[in-house]
Design brief:
The chain is an alpha+beta fold. The protein has one domain: Gcn5-related N-acetyltransferase (GNAT) (Aminopeptidase, 3-Layer(aba) Sandwich). A hairpin with a 2-residue loop joins strand 2 and strand 3. Helix 1 packs antiparallel against helix 2. It starts with a strand and ends in a 10-residue tail after the last strand.
Protein backbone atom coordinates (compact mmCIF):
# COMPACT_ATOMS: atom_id res chain seq x y z
CA UNK A 1 0.00 0.00 0.00
CA UNK A 2 1.20 3.47 -0.87
CA UNK A 3 -0.17 6.79 0.45
CA UNK A 4 -0.11 9.67 -2.05
CA UNK A 5 -1.49 13.17 -2.40
CA UNK A 6 -4.84 13.06 -4.20
CA UNK A 7 -3.62 16.00 -6.29
CA UNK A 8 -1.64 13.57 -8.47
CA UNK A 9 -4.72 11.49 -9.34
CA UNK A 10 -7.49 12.14 -11.83
CA UNK A 11 -10.26 13.97 -9.89
CA UNK A 12 -13.04 12.12 -11.74
CA UNK A 13 -11.49 8.78 -10.79
CA UNK A 14 -11.17 9.85 -7.13
CA UNK A 15 -14.82 10.99 -7.02
CA UNK A 16 -15.99 7.77 -8.64
CA UNK A 17 -14.04 5.46 -6.29
CA UNK A 18 -15.04 7.31 -3.11
CA UNK A 19 -18.69 7.57 -4.15
CA UNK A 20 -18.71 3.80 -4.89
CA UNK A 21 -17.60 3.18 -1.32
CA UNK A 22 -20.43 5.32 0.08
CA UNK A 23 -22.94 3.76 -2.31
CA UNK A 24 -21.94 0.31 -1.06
CA UNK A 25 -22.31 1.22 2.63
CA UNK A 26 -25.05 3.86 2.66
CA UNK A 27 -26.93 3.60 -0.63
CA UNK A 28 -27.06 5.24 -4.04
CA UNK A 29 -28.44 8.58 -2.82
CA UNK A 30 -25.55 9.06 -0.40
CA UNK A 31 -23.08 7.94 -3.04
CA UNK A 32 -24.41 10.62 -5.39
CA UNK A 33 -24.17 13.32 -2.71
CA UNK A 34 -20.56 12.31 -1.98
CA UNK A 35 -19.69 12.29 -5.68
CA UNK A 36 -20.98 15.86 -6.03
CA UNK A 37 -19.17 16.92 -2.83
CA UNK A 38 -15.83 15.55 -4.06
CA UNK A 39 -16.31 17.13 -7.48
CA UNK A 40 -16.67 20.49 -5.69
CA UNK A 41 -13.79 19.85 -3.29
CA UNK A 42 -11.37 18.87 -6.06
CA UNK A 43 -12.69 21.15 -8.79
CA UNK A 44 -13.67 24.38 -7.06
CA UNK A 45 -11.87 24.60 -3.72
CA UNK A 46 -8.61 26.58 -3.69
CA UNK A 47 -5.66 24.21 -3.40
CA UNK A 48 -4.51 25.71 -0.08
CA UNK A 49 -7.97 25.12 1.40
CA UNK A 50 -8.31 21.41 0.62
CA UNK A 51 -5.82 18.62 1.18
CA UNK A 52 -6.41 14.99 0.40
CA UNK A 53 -4.50 11.76 0.57
CA UNK A 54 -5.25 8.46 -1.01
CA UNK A 55 -4.17 4.89 -0.46
CA UNK A 56 -3.16 2.95 -3.54
CA UNK A 57 -2.93 -0.80 -4.01
CA UNK A 58 -0.83 -0.82 -7.15
CA UNK A 59 -2.54 1.82 -9.27
CA UNK A 60 -5.99 1.29 -7.75
CA UNK A 61 -7.34 3.85 -5.25
CA UNK A 62 -8.62 1.91 -2.24
CA UNK A 63 -9.02 4.74 0.25
CA UNK A 64 -9.16 8.51 0.50
CA UNK A 65 -9.31 11.16 3.18
CA UNK A 66 -10.03 14.86 2.69
CA UNK A 67 -9.23 17.80 4.95
CA UNK A 68 -10.68 21.23 4.18
CA UNK A 69 -10.08 24.53 5.91
CA UNK A 70 -12.40 25.84 8.60
CA UNK A 71 -11.82 29.53 9.24
CA UNK A 72 -12.58 30.68 12.76
CA UNK A 73 -12.30 34.39 13.73
CA UNK A 74 -8.92 33.89 15.40
CA UNK A 75 -7.37 31.17 13.20
CA UNK A 76 -7.57 29.61 9.78
CA UNK A 77 -5.43 26.66 10.86
CA UNK A 78 -8.28 24.27 11.61
CA UNK A 79 -9.23 21.49 9.20
CA UNK A 80 -12.42 19.50 8.74
CA UNK A 81 -11.78 15.80 8.12
CA UNK A 82 -14.44 14.71 5.65
CA UNK A 83 -15.14 12.64 3.70
CA UNK A 84 -13.16 9.54 4.56
CA UNK A 85 -13.58 6.29 2.68
CA UNK A 86 -11.94 2.88 2.46
CA UNK A 87 -13.10 0.59 -0.33
CA UNK A 88 -15.16 -2.32 1.13
CA UNK A 89 -12.62 -5.10 0.41
CA UNK A 90 -9.96 -3.12 2.33
CA UNK A 91 -11.95 -2.19 5.43
CA UNK A 92 -11.20 -3.44 8.95
CA UNK A 93 -7.52 -3.96 8.17
CA UNK A 94 -6.10 -0.74 9.66
CA UNK A 95 -5.92 1.10 6.33
CA UNK A 96 -8.29 3.89 7.41
CA UNK A 97 -6.31 4.59 10.56
CA UNK A 98 -3.02 4.60 8.61
CA UNK A 99 -4.45 6.97 6.02
CA UNK A 100 -5.89 9.39 8.59
CA UNK A 101 -2.70 9.37 10.66
CA UNK A 102 -0.64 10.15 7.54
CA UNK A 103 -2.99 13.05 6.77
CA UNK A 104 -2.81 14.39 10.32
CA UNK A 105 0.99 14.31 10.19
CA UNK A 106 0.97 16.25 6.90
CA UNK A 107 -1.39 18.84 8.42
CA UNK A 108 1.02 19.31 11.33
CA UNK A 109 3.81 20.08 8.85
CA UNK A 110 1.50 22.65 7.21
CA UNK A 111 1.01 24.39 10.58
CA UNK A 112 -2.56 23.34 11.32
CA UNK A 113 -3.53 23.61 14.99
CA UNK A 114 -6.58 21.35 15.12
CA UNK A 115 -8.81 19.00 13.17
CA UNK A 116 -12.53 18.44 13.61
CA UNK A 117 -14.66 15.74 12.10
CA UNK A 118 -18.28 14.77 11.98
CA UNK A 119 -18.37 11.00 12.17
CA UNK A 120 -18.54 7.82 14.20
CA UNK A 121 -17.16 8.45 17.70
CA UNK A 122 -16.32 4.75 18.16
CA UNK A 123 -13.89 4.95 15.22
CA UNK A 124 -12.46 8.45 15.54
CA UNK A 125 -11.77 8.30 19.29
CA UNK A 126 -9.29 5.50 18.49
CA UNK A 127 -7.31 8.12 16.55
CA UNK A 128 -7.14 10.72 19.32
CA UNK A 129 -10.34 12.63 18.59
CA UNK A 130 -12.55 13.68 21.50
CA UNK A 131 -16.17 14.83 21.67
CA UNK A 132 -16.23 18.54 20.93
CA UNK A 133 -18.26 20.96 23.01
CA UNK A 134 -20.52 22.83 20.55
CA UNK A 135 -19.93 26.10 22.41
CA UNK A 136 -16.14 25.85 22.48
CA UNK A 137 -15.80 24.29 19.00
CA UNK A 138 -18.75 25.67 17.07
CA UNK A 139 -19.72 23.75 13.92
CA UNK A 140 -20.41 25.71 10.71
CA UNK A 141 -24.03 24.46 10.58
CA UNK A 142 -26.56 22.83 12.90
CA UNK A 143 -25.69 19.16 13.34
CA UNK A 144 -28.24 16.40 12.81
CA UNK A 145 -26.04 14.01 14.83
CA UNK A 146 -24.41 16.20 17.53
CA UNK A 147 -22.58 13.28 19.19
CA UNK A 148 -20.52 12.91 16.00
CA UNK A 149 -18.80 16.32 16.35
CA UNK A 150 -15.24 15.49 17.38
CA UNK A 151 -11.96 17.40 17.59
CA UNK A 152 -8.25 16.84 18.03
CA UNK A 153 -5.43 19.27 18.75
CA UNK A 154 -2.43 18.96 16.44
CA UNK A 155 -0.18 20.96 18.74
CA UNK A 156 1.18 20.00 22.14
CA UNK A 157 -1.57 21.79 24.03
CA UNK A 158 -5.32 21.88 24.32
CA UNK A 159 -7.48 22.97 21.43
CA UNK A 160 -7.16 26.65 20.61
CA UNK A 161 -10.14 28.84 21.52
CA UNK A 162 -12.62 28.45 18.66
CA UNK A 163 -15.76 29.91 20.24
CA UNK A 164 -17.36 31.58 17.21
CA UNK A 165 -19.02 30.06 14.16
CA UNK A 166 -16.48 29.22 11.44
CA UNK A 167 -16.63 29.58 7.68
CA UNK A 168 -16.19 26.36 5.74
CA UNK A 169 -15.24 25.84 2.12
CA UNK A 170 -18.11 26.23 -0.35
CA UNK A 171 -18.41 22.47 -0.91
CA UNK A 172 -19.48 22.04 2.73
CA UNK A 173 -21.53 25.22 2.98
CA UNK A 174 -24.79 23.29 2.65
CA UNK A 175 -26.90 22.75 5.76
CA UNK A 176 -28.20 19.39 4.49
CA UNK A 177 -24.68 17.90 4.68
CA UNK A 178 -24.64 18.45 8.42
Amino acid sequence: MNIVSLSILNPAYVAQRVSETFTHSEGADTGEVIHHLIDKLLGETPRDDCHGWGMLDGEQLVGAVFFSRLTYPHTDKVALLSPMAIYPDYQRQGHGKALINAGLEQLRTLGYQAVVTYGDPAFYTQLGFHPADHIEVVPPHTLSYPHGWLAQSLIDSDLPALGAKPCCVDAFNQADLW
